[in-house]
Amino acid sequence: MIIWAEGTVAVVGDRWAGAVELIIDTDGGQTFRSLAYLDLMPQPRTGDRVLLNIAALARGLGTGGYAFVVAVLDQNGRLIGQPGLPKGHLVKARYTPLQVMISGVDEQDSDFHDRLDSADDLDRMPVIVADLHSAVAPIIAAIRSDSGDRTPRVAYLMTDEAALPIAFSRTVAALRAEEWLVGTITCGQAYGGDLEAVNVHSGLLAAKVAMQADLVIVSQGPGNLGTGTRWGFSGTGAGEVINAAAVLNGRPIGSLRISSADPRFRHRGVSHHSLTAYSRVALRTADIAVPDFSDVSPLTGIRDLYALPRFAARINEAVAELAGLHRLHRIELAGLDRALLGCPVRLSTMGRDLDADPAYFLAAAAAGRLAVHLMSD
Fold it and tell me: Quick one: which of 45, 138, 274, 276 has the fewest CB in 10 Å?
C-alpha cells in the first residue's frame, strides 16, 4: 500500500546524476529526507509543493532513509511541468501507477537493433557476479589496480532484484564521474542506465555489442532484500546470472559475500546467500574467487586485520561444497589494500566501512583480481 503525504520543499540538498536530495516539511508536521528522480519530474525548488510516498518510512523500513517524491505541484495542488515524451516503447515498473516508458537498446528503432538481433556470443568476455551492490566499487578498484597500462572497458549491468532506478545509487554516479565505468545497463524492471535491456541475457549482449566492454560486473542495485530464510533473499539472482553468462559463451566469475563482522551468523564467514546461489541456483560452471586470508601481513592501512588468518580455515571449509561444480581460485591479497584505500568511492556495506569489515571488501576485490588474471590467459 502507498501512504501519501503532501509538503513543501524546505531544503534542496545534494544532487547527482538523475537524482536530488530534499528536505520536505509535510502538512502533518513531519519532516522527511526525500529523494526526487529528475528523469520523472522537473527539478524541485525551495518552496515548491510536492506529493510524497512515505509508506516505507511509516512502517520503519530502510529504503535508504528516504521518502520519495511522486510529483511537483504548484500552490493550488496542480502538477508543475512534465518530462519529455518517451522515446521508446519499453515499459518498466509495468502496470504500476509509476511505470516509465523508455527506449530499449534492442527495440526496433534502436541503432543497435540489427546487430543485437543476431547476437548470441560473448566470446568469453568475463562476467563478474556479485550478490550485493556494495561489491561493485571494490571489484573495479582491484581491476584498475591490477591491469597495468591497459585498463579494461568495464560496464555495469544492474538487475531488478532490489532498487529499480539506477539513479538511487550514488556509487554508480561517482564511478561514472570518475570514468571508472564505460557505461551502465539496466535490465528487467530496473531502469535509468545508459542502455535499457529486457533481461540479463540481452543486457550482457548489449554490453558486448553496444558498449564494446571488455568485462561486465553484474549485481542487484542497492536495497538487498532478505527474510532470514534459506530461499527468501534477492541474491538468488547471482546464480541465474552465472547461467546466462555461460549460455552466451561468457566467462562467469563469482564474487563471494564474506564478512568478518556481520552480527548475523548466517552471513559470518561465507554468506549462505553466496553458497545457495552458487551451489543450488547456478547450473553452469563459474570461476569463483576465494580470498586467501591465511597471510595478511603484506596488508597495511586497514584496521582489524589480525583476525583474518584465523578466518581462513572457515572460509576454505565453507567453499568446499562449491568445488563439485565450479573452479575455485585462491587469490592472494597483497596490494589489494592499496587498491581499496585509493578507491574514490565511499566503501560501505550494511553500514560497515573498510576498517569495520575488511573481509567483505577484500573478497570483492579478489574477484576483480581473478578477472584480470583470466583475461591475460
Answer: 45
51 and 155 part of one domain: no
Do 280 and 298 form a contact (C-beta atoms < 8 A)? no
Bridge-based pairing of strands 215-220 and 154-159 is: parallel
Residue numbers of the domain that contains 187: 113-376
Residues 66 and 124 in one domain: no
Beta-strand ranges (E) seen in the chain are 4-16, 19-26, 31-37, 49-53, 67-73, 90-92, 100-102, 126-129, 154-159, 183-186, 195-196, 215-220, 251-255, 258-259, 269-270, 287-291, 327-331
Residue 189: pLDDT above 60? yes
**Residue 346: CB atoms within 10 Å:** 12
**HSE-up (13 A, CA, CB side) for residue 259:** 23
DSSP secondary structure letter of residue 281: I
Q: Is 128 helix (H, G, I), strand (E, B) or coil?
A: strand
* Torsions phi, psi for 286 (to 5 deg): -130, 165
Average pLDDT, the chain: 92
Whether residues 191 and 284 share a domain: the answer is yes
The reported pLDDT for the residue numbered 62 is 53
Q: What's the CA gap between 33 and 25, in Å, rounded?
A: 9
Q: Compute the distance between CA of residue 237 and CA of residue 221 in angstroms, rounded to an integer.
A: 12
State which of 51, 73, 95 marks the end of a domain. Answer: 73
Instruction: Identify the helix (H) or strand (E) that includes residue 373.
Output: helix 358-376
The angle formed by the CA atoms of residues 216, 221 and 223, to the nearest 5 degrees, is: 155
Q: Do both 134 and 211 map to the same domain?
A: yes
